Amino acid sequence: MTVVPTTPRRWALTLAGLALALGVLPASAQQKVKTTPSPDPREGLAAGKFDAGEAIWNMRMLSTTPSPGPFALNTNTDLAFSGNLVYQGNYNGFMVWDIANPAKPHLTTWSHCPASQSDISVYGNLAFVSAEGLSGRLDCGTQGVPEPVSADRVRGIRIFDMTDPLDPKYVGNVQTCRGSHTHTVVTDKNDPEHVYVYISGSSRVRSPEELPGCSELAPSEDPNSSLFRIEVIKVPLKDPSKAAIVGGARFLDNLAPAPQRSQPTPPQRQLTPAQDSAMAARRAAMAARPGRTGPNQCHDITVYPAVDLAGGACGGYGVLLDISDPANPRRIDAVADTNFSFWHSATFHNDGKAVLFTDEWGGGRAPRCRESDKYEWGANALFTIENGKMKFQSYYKMPARQTEWENCVAHNGSPIPIPGREVMVQGWYQGGISIFDWTDPAAPFELAFHDRGPLADGELTSAGSWSVYWYNGVIVNSEIARGLDIFELTPSEYISQNEIDAAKTVIWKELNPQEQPMMVWPASFAKARAFVDQLERSKGLTAPRIAIVREALTRAEATGGNTRNAALGQLATSLVADARGSSDAPKVTMLVNAVRELGGS
Predict the structure, then answer these.
(1) pLDDT category of residue 363 using cuts at 50, 70 and 90
(2) 408: which DSSP letter?
(3) Are 21 and 14 within 8 A, CB to CB?
(4) Is 442's pLDDT higher than 80?
(5) Is the pLDDT of residue 291 over 90?
(6) Cα–Cα distance between 90 and 103 in angstroms, integer?
(7) The pairing of beta strand 117-123 with beta strand 106-112
(8) Are 469 and 513 contacting, i.e. CB atoms less than 8 angstroms apart?
């Protein structure tokens, strides 16, 4: 376990068993790269629902579509993708949008089936929907469940058959002891007949009178305790109605209490040094109580099956898991941070050698991007993964100052498949959308953004980007209070048209962002040119050499057959020599490989 205490003194602590060793973070972890316009156009935007002020940089909005019918009255949540369809969760159920024409998405169907928070995933013809709130009903009714114990209540996942997208069929559910705040679909390459679903439930344990077997006793008192674990559900694809819990992965056992950061003091409640010291002493005393433990549940888990890893955001900890056996995820490392309040979600580098965790401080309801808020609060923490251990590198936070009327904190996002780089798009609630480069986890920087003004001026309300993901060439945003937004990237000094074109060559049949796919780029001239643009940006090749390589690619593309292959072979050979003297040899090697792929070698 690694601990990163509060700024301005940033330290790294490593806990082996119960022994602490102290070390200092590298200077690179202190860097913040400034790229965004000054003054920042996101600051001072006018409030409103559909008439709010907007700021956009290096992006283009293709469409914005209001939520229909009963969904306009409740919170939009997470997204999943299949073919041309976008599945959008909502506390009143889910909607299915056709985005074949992203400038004019249209509603294909909906399911009015209330529950919080209706996070949704898809696999083949199935859709899985989370249910956690006390009012969700097995029959999808809207009357709620007033009784404290009821056989009508559903808390777990609902399963829908989407074979006919126009006619969703509710085929079953799996009840869990703590409900499903979020869930993660996990595929097993060795078992094509099933998929697994990890359930992250954050509510109190249900009464055993409502669901037999539920227990809120400590594991030391009850080995079948519902605490300190996630539920693992196995779904037979031929008969999903037989989906059932096959285990509880208790990978949170034996974690020490997460270190606590002093919360900011409200202006009306300034403390004297003596009062502050007394409060710190009380916190220390509580932390020392016998039996106090670390988190007993996870909020969200991102799995990356291509490298057999998962990142668990588990309240006070970020947890690295081995999922080589998907039915039995196993903890291999855990990190805590006194600048973090609530570890929320995770994203990996494409090679699996770095991971990013988000901090949803305040549950997404608090303003944490004000001028008075520290950069590290409600931000991302970036780690490299070295020999199975996470090593802190830096923080990244949406850099524009927001008002006290805007809930703003790190939330959901996904990688953008630009070859040779690690670029991510991320939602920040009413902080809007931020796209940033974290190829070097020690020095992330912003590349593009979109933001609206507050939903209401003078009132802290919930709105903004819940989830925003790249999918097959477009950026799709679930706007909490307004609907569905679709954007595209535009070229800039930070992302070239060739890089955008190369990103668009990565096509997925479906995407559940919590099951991160490895990005694989087919051979294309766009990919080769993207590497040339990156070498120009890094000065990894001289300007005259860049011009020669671009001309060689243009000539080769204009030919075909053996003539093209021969020209590309000659270019690759000359680039091998360039790599030996380049300041960016790894990128030149990527270019060599891209050219060879085009030449069929």
Answers:
(1) confident
(2) B
(3) yes
(4) yes
(5) no
(6) 22
(7) unpaired
(8) yes
Pairing of strands 330-337, 2-4: parallel
- Name every residue whose Cβ is closer than 8 Å to that of residue 17 and which is 6 or more positions away in sequence: none
Rg (the chain; Cα; Å): 25
Tokens matching residue 447: 């590349």
Q: What is the pLDDT of residues 380-438, one digit of tens each?
A: 999 999 999 999 999 999 999 999 999 999 999 999 999 999 999 999 999 999 999 99
Q: What are the respective helix, strand and coil percentages of the chain, to the nearest 5?
A: 20, 35, 45
pLDDT at 294 over 90: no
| Residue written as token pair 């602590």 | 13
Low-confidence winner among 159-168, 258-267, 571-580 (lowest mean pLDDT): 258-267
Distance CA 115, CA 322 (A): 31
Residues shown for the chain: 601
**Identity of the residue numbered 176:** T
Please answer whether residues 413 and 464 qualify as being in contact, where contact means their C-beta atoms are separated by less than 8 angstroms. Answer: no
Listing DSSP states for 543-584 in one string gives: HHHHHHHHHHHHHHHTS-HHHHHHHHHHHHHHHHHHHHH-TT
Name 108's Cβ contacts closer than 8 Å, sequence gap at least 6: 85, 96, 97, 98, 165, 166
Q: Is the peptide bond before 8 cis (omega within 30 degrees of 0)?
A: yes
Single-letter residue type at 255: L
**Cis peptide bond prior to 426, omega within 30° of 0:** no
Q: What is the pLDDT of residues 373-391, one digit of tens each?
A: 999 999 999 999 999 999 9
What are the extents of the domains in the chain?
A: 525-598
471 bridge partner residues: 474
- The whole-angstrom separation of Cα 457 and Cα 455 is 7
Q: Which of 132, 139, 133 has its CA nearest to residue 113?
A: 139
Residue 559 token pair? 């030919």
In angstroms, rounded to a whole number, what is the distance separating the alpha carbons of residues 60 and 137?
41
pLDDT for res 3: 53
Does residue 166 come out as left (phi exceeding 0), alpha (psi in the -120 to 50 range) or beta? alpha
Model pLDDT, residue 165: 87
Residue 182 pairs in a beta bridge with 200
pLDDT at residue 269 greater than cutoff 70: no
| CA–CA distances in Å: residue 277 to residues 281, 292, 338, 374 | 6, 22, 17, 21
- The arithmetic mean of pLDDT across residues 87-98, rounded, is 97
Give the residue from 190, 177, 277, 161 showing the smallest Cα distance to 227: 177
**Which residue type sits at 366?**
A
- Provide the token pair at 169: 């069929």
DSSP 515: B
Residues contacting 254, CB < 8 A, separation 6+: none
Angle between helices 561-581 and 543-557 (to 10 degrees): 160
